[in-house]
């Protein structure tokens, strides 16, 4: 999974406002799993992922595991905590490294560090993976600089760019890389930021200064929180009835929508905004005295509907519609009807932190306390029910194969028919 993966607590979707600014192919199921599949012994295990640890590292972790079948590679993003020795920043320091392992043998193919000898360490990073092996990495450094990297599947650097501001990166539908700057807030509470698109050679395709900050970018749509911020004793906060501007790949505004009073669209960190394959936009909101509603906008920005959904549910896109998941019940909807097209009840005890994610091959992955379901999104057919009792985290699933990190080692498990 990529680095934007987020957990969802199994409680009602929060209505608290945030105090700050914030090429996929679907594999058809081979069969519908009816019993929990106990994984066979691992096909291989890697050498220790953190064997090249830093002597003074305070802690180490693996943040991402992402398989790229087209290159027979599995990427692992490791992070080590480094003592802050200058006092120039209050933030923690990190050493981030991208490693590539052979999906056939588990041997390390190459390693690329975002830290240069005697150079600054990272404060935050983001990784975006393509299906052809290129990895884009953004890094904010302890010396106040920001850099964007394009790393080839061979481990060589394609290109590197300095950025003038902190940013978020997103791979768009046409293969371009969107870089959305964090922007600055003026005394009136107006955010000014910049959208930039690059091709895979690092060429700037277009750039546009805008009012607002990025909420979500996916497919061929870019969602911007465009309202002025409110001032409080802790600084600036998002307004409770936000105006959302939606841009296309040409970085021109296509439409805007003003949400009702006392609406919160910022959520609790779980997925709440989606762009479907045809450009339809879905935005989840919690409205005081009303509850949770999912708003649907057609590709031209016409409001299609606002559908009430359970406040404790998790939402996720299927590409052509969406699902809701609550209390082990999974329901599938499209954009034309508010009636569920399909519904299934999953077995197992819910995990403390439940998530519903898209896998690298386009399926849905839902975790339980002792098992993980792989679901075909168009029908809710169960592709796999995997016993995850002995698996570590993070994990990735693609083409009937599970990659899992446990105790500093990467494992591959092939699921036999």
From TrEMBL:
What the entry lists under InterPro entries is as follows: PQQ_b-propeller_rpt, PQQ_rpt_dom, Quinoprotein_ADH-like_sf, WD40/YVTN_repeat-like_dom_sf
Signal peptide extent: 1-32
UniProt domain Pyrrolo-quinoline quinone repeat: residue ranges: 97-311
**Keywords, ordered alphabetically:** Signal
Name of the protein this chain belongs to: PQQ-binding-like beta-propeller repeat protein
